[in-house]
């Protein structure tokens, strides 16, 4: 599990759900600040491995994947729930995004999936496993204030599709879940998030809030054998908002 940060994160909701269904999990963390929280959560589901990982380092990614495969006796799936953009780039105009911070957002949020896929491919091929990432509608449409993260999600979506082709011949599936606005701590860094949430609840066909557990249910399906012929797909969990024109 890459990307668990706290008990309100979508990645943790997924981890808890698949753990309840019998999965044994390894966790990564980025930085000393969140390490104690991740270790506590991992311990609550009996994880045998919690390890630091900087997804900007190919060497780090390879090391972590190998450690996880050894600790778990192989890999049936990998969940990639990693994204980052500087807060100031989620407030003003996308036009004003500096080049350096643009590449940081794409490196962490999109290329990391490619790096993880490359490292995990032999392990997932051995089990007929799957790779799952988290995306958002802001990669398909312009969402005010989502800015460079939307561009990164567009790159992530395209990467997911190309990876599904490359890995498909070895029986490995690659998919994404596109969640509507979920009240995570990370969402607080997006200016106007309450407005985004209110608009979805007003205009989505189901007219209701999306929770992390809803996303976890969709993720569990994509990771399971029930989705054995589903790959290269974005599964929307947004009360149907993506289907609307206004």
Could you explain the architecture of this structure?
Helix content is 45%, strand content 12%. The chain is built from seven helices and six strands, in the order H-E-H-E-H-E-H-E-H-E-H-H-E. The strands form two sheets. The protein has a four-stranded parallel beta sheet, sandwiched between helices. Strands 1-2 form a two-stranded parallel sheet. Strand 4, helix 5 (147-168) and strand 5 (173-179) form a beta-alpha-beta unit. Helix 1 (10-20) packs across helix 7 (212-223), helix 3 packs parallel to helix 4 (99-127) and helix 4 packs parallel to helix 5. The model has no long low-confidence stretch (mean pLDDT 94).
Write the layout of secondary structure elements.
Elements: H1 10-20, E1 26-29, H2 35-44, E2 49-52, H3 58-72, E3 77-80, H4 99-127, E4 130-135, H5 147-168, E5 173-179, H6 193-203, H7 212-223, E6 234-237
Parallel strand pairs: 1-2, 3-4, 4-5, 5-6
Helix pairs in contact: 1-7, 3-4, 4-5
Question: What features would you highlight for this structure?
Answer:
single chain; 246 residues; alpha/beta; 4-stranded parallel beta sheet; two-stranded parallel sheet; 6 strands
Report helical residue fraction. 40-55%
- As laid out across the biggest beta sheet, the strand order is 3-4-5-6
Question: What is Rg?
Answer: 17 Å
Number of strands: 6
Provide the residue-averaged pLDDT: 94
